[in-house]
Amino acid sequence: xxxxxxxxxxxxxxxxxxxxxxxxxxxxxxxxxxxxxxxxxxxxxxxxxxxxxxxxxxxxxxxxxxxxxxxxxxxxxxxxxxxxxxxxxxxxxxxxxxxxxxxxxxxxxxxxxxxxxxxxxxxxxxxxxxxxxxxxxxxxxxxxxxxxxxxxxxxxxxxxxxxxxxxxxxxxxxxxxxxxxxxxxxxxxxxxxxxxxxxxxxxxxxxxxxxxxxxxxxxxxxxxxxxxxxxxxxxxxxxxxxxxxxxxxxxxxxxxxxxxxxxxxxxxxxxxxxxxxxxxxxxxxxxxxxxxxxxxxxxxxxxxxxxxxxxxxxxxxxxxxxxxxxxxxxxxxxxxxxxxxxxxxxxxxxxxxxxxxxxxxxxxxxxxxxxxxxxxxxxxxxxxxxxxxxxxxxxxxxxxxxxxxxxxxxxxxxxxxxxxxxxxxxxxxxxxxxxxxxxxxxxxxxxxxxxxxxxxxxxxxxxxxxxxxxxxxxxxxxxxxxxxxxxxxxxxxxxxxxxxxxxxxxxxxxxxxxxxxxxxxxxxxxxxxx
Length: 530
Description:
Layout: H1 24-45, E1 51-56, H2 71-80, E2 85-87, E3 93-95, E4 98-105, E5 108-113, H3 127-138, H4 144-148, E6 152-159, E7 162-167, H5 174-177, H6 188-194, E8 210-216, E9 220-225, E10 244-249, H7 253-262, E11 267-268, H8 276-281, E12 285-291, E13 295-300, H9 310-319, H10 322-329, E14 335-336, H11 359-368, E15 374-381, H12 385-398, E16 403-410, H13 412-420, E17 426-431, H14 438-445, H15 459-470, H16 474-491, E18 494-499, E19 501-507, E20 510-511, E21 527-528
Parallel strand pairs: 1-10, 1-11, 15-16, 15-17
Antiparallel strand pairs: 2-3, 4-5, 5-7, 6-7, 8-9, 9-10, 11-19, 12-19, 13-17, 13-18, 14-18, 20-21
Helix pairs in contact: 9-11, 14-15, 15-16
């Protein structure tokens, strides 16, 4: 069952007073003052309390940012761990644990840090904590974070409140990169104490608005209010307002929406496209969507047959019908994708469309590969009829080209493990997107990138992505990304299908919800009302 509670603190009763002995003016004034005071107190306190229930489209995988590759992980972690800097609704960098920053040279960035923050285990946040967290990434070659900040050479604590990042070369995406997992700050004491348990039980490891409480895998994960959180609202009240948040993994998007309608959850991270019109029409729900930064499609293992042949990969690119998948399966919620950068990116190329649905071209590519037919296994997530339908469409679309697709459904965690360990031929996996184009391209398509499950390698692409990192001119960077996309499309290690949207799907009781293009649900300022 879902329980809701609201802590409303009423004003105290006045002492016994012989009101008849007071002048009428003072009596009226006293009543006016009491009414105003009571009203202000009610406004200030009525936001506090309440237990929020949130639906996620899969179970959380890990709560260690060093290891994480899943969006559902970030949904929780960005509410329990602070980052050095944060991103706003316009994708601009804003202060968080760092109050300001300055490039003292193209390869040196100095952060000024907050001095009033402690992790919930009592460890002070300071420059040494920053050094510890960044060094943890730089000394872990297996971490997906390493390729995100591989341009960082060293991090130096100048004093307790100032830390300097020394770079190997100029690195334009650094600030935006530090708004996410690479910039999450955890207690060094907690990391040492917890060891491998950090991934599943990060007790008192953060300094964010909420603290980890309990994780029952396959059922729910609960975080609770951090009473010592440093951030305050405009009236000077300590955030957050909510007493707790419980996340529920619900793989079937139809079931998730039913739970939203019935009030079992207050917020859903996704809505089945078939139900968007119903969500919009429900007076008890709020549904909004904005262009997102994501891409979705099919990873192809370029080191495993049959996809070690570029012509077979191109055959898949020609043989899938993107329009049919988007409009039939996803009811037009999104836009066709031909590359990793969505219309929400400043480097998006609107005229870039290397592939259309063309069975003859798909057959021609197979012929160039010396094959008349191909069979492969396609991994997709289990428990979601929409994901199954998408895989079935891919299967039926490729069949006329002589391509047989065997669909294998796996839990999301297993699918991630198989893709990250290269134990696959093809897998339906997407990316939630990042504000800087580097976050959508470098870790995915640079040789050895942290998300490069395809084991794709092209020296020209590497050079372009490296050049885009070092340039500070946005137009120059955009051209580098456009050229890199063209080469990636020719090599087809990933079959881009569509770009998604960022949504808010919540009960009308959920107030002050900020919809971000990154799709991250931040709850520090959210409260429950009537």
